[in-house]
Structure formats: structure tokens, C-alpha cells
């Protein structure tokens, strides 16, 4: 097995680019309300602006439509209300993160809810049409992996 650190084609960073017509609103939401520190910002002339915000460790979550609908249901969202691409941010305290965001006029789509996945999730409406799930892990990955229904695809195939 190749060490991922020695492979020059292994991604070192994930950047999610959100194109927005109201840059200041989006910057306020992600930087000020959700607390993502600004790493760099660049501007040329006129409306040519970009801000790069630190969002912790990045992962890509691939989900079937069935699972995405299940997440919507668990989070208390109406069926079919979520876009096919949204942001999920892990926080230490979902309730506090929602309070901070709503103090800055963010709209709560679904309040903090304990999920069968052993997390505390809430859904906010972000700028530029993006929905944001804030989630707090309530147990470790190791604890979760001992529970029924939390197998990887490889493990599920071996048990089939």
C-alpha cells in the first residue's frame, strides 16, 4: 500500500468555492457567524474579491439519494427541500453554534436534533442558496463502529 503522503497526486487540501452575488453577506455568515478564520483575502479592482476561510479538516461525504433523504428526515427537514450539494460543519457545541449564528440573523431550517448516527445536527440557510448542517459528534468513531448498522462497505460485503 502506498503512503498517501509520498504520492504527489494525493490532494493536500479541499476548497469548496461558493460563488455569491452578495460577497459581504457570505463573508459575514461564514467568517463572523460560523467562526471560520480568514486565511487570506485578495482583491483587484471593482467587485473582484475572494476570501479563503479555514474550515478545519475537509472530507467528502458521498451519499445515495436514499441516505440524503434519511438525513433530511432525521434533521426535521421537509422531503425534497435540500439541494444535492450542501455544507456540513462539525462543531464542538451545536446548540452554541446555532445561537451564535441566529444572533447574527441566520435562519434556522431545523433546530438541534439528536440523530440515530449519534450526532447532534441542526440545519441553517446560508447565503447564495447553500444549506449548512452543523453537527456535534456525541461519541467517537471507534464507539460508533461497534454498533449495528455502522459497517464500512468492505465489512458489509464480507458479512453478506
What does this structure look like?
It comes from Herbiconiux sp. A18JL235. Residues 10-137 form the VOC domain. InterPro entries: Glyas_Bleomycin-R_OHBP_Dase, Glyas_Fos-R_dOase_dom, VOC_core. This is VOC family protein. The protein contains 5 helices and 6 strands. It has helices spanning 23-33, 65-74, 94-103, 141-145, 153-159, and strands at residues 38-43, 49-53, 87-90, 107-114, 119-125, 131-137. The strands form 2 sheets. A 4-stranded mixed sheet has the order 3-6-5-4, covered by helices on one side. A two-stranded antiparallel ribbon has the order 1-2. A hairpin with a 4-residue loop joins β4 (107-114) and β5. It is globular and about 60 Å long. The mean pLDDT is 87.
Blueprint (SSEs and pairs):
Blueprint: H1 23-33, E1 38-43, E2 49-53, H2 65-74, E3 87-90, H3 94-103, E4 107-114, E5 119-125, E6 131-137, H4 141-145, H5 153-159
CATH class: Alpha Beta
Helix content: 25-40%
Give the integer mean of the pLDDT values. Answer: 87
- For the secondary structure, the number of strands is 6
Write down the Rg.
Answer: 18 Å
Structural class: alpha+beta
Show unreliable segments.
none
The H/E string reads HEEHEHEEEHH
Tell me the quaternary state.
single chain
Largest sheet report: 4 strands, mixed
According to CATH, the homologous superfamily is: 2,3-Dihydroxybiphenyl 1,2-Dioxygenase, domain 1
CATH architectural name: Roll
Pfam families: Glyoxalase
Organism: Herbiconiux sp. A18JL235
Protein name: VOC family protein
Amino acid at each position: 500500500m502506498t503512503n498517501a503522503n509520498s504520492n504527489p497526486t494525493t490532494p493536500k487540501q479541499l476548497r469548496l468555492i461558493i460563488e455569491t452575488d452578495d460577497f459581504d453577506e457570505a463573508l459575514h455568515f461564514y467568517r463572523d457567524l460560523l467562526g471560520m478564520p480568514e486565511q487570506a483575502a485578495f482583491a483587484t479592482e471593482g467587485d473582484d474579491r475572494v476570501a479563503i476561510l479555514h474550515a478545519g479538516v475537509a472530507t467528502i461525504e458521498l451519499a445515495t439519494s436514499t441516505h440524503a433523504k434519511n438525513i433530511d428526515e432525521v434533521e426535521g427537514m421537509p422531503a425534497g427541500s435540500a439541494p444535492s450539494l450542501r455544507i456540513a460543519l462539525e462543531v464542538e457545541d451545536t446548540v452554541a453554534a446555532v445561537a451564535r449564528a441566529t444572533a447574527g440573523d441566520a435562519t434556522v431550517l431545523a433546530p438541534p436534533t439528536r440523530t440515530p448516527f449519534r450526532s447532534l445536527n441542526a440545519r441553517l440557510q446560508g447565503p447564495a442558496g447553500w444549506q449548512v448542517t452543523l453537527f456535534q459528534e456525541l461519541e467517537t468513531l471507534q464507539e460508533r463502529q461497534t454498533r449495528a448498522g455502522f459497517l464500512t462497505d468492505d465489512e458489509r460485503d464480507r458479512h453478506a
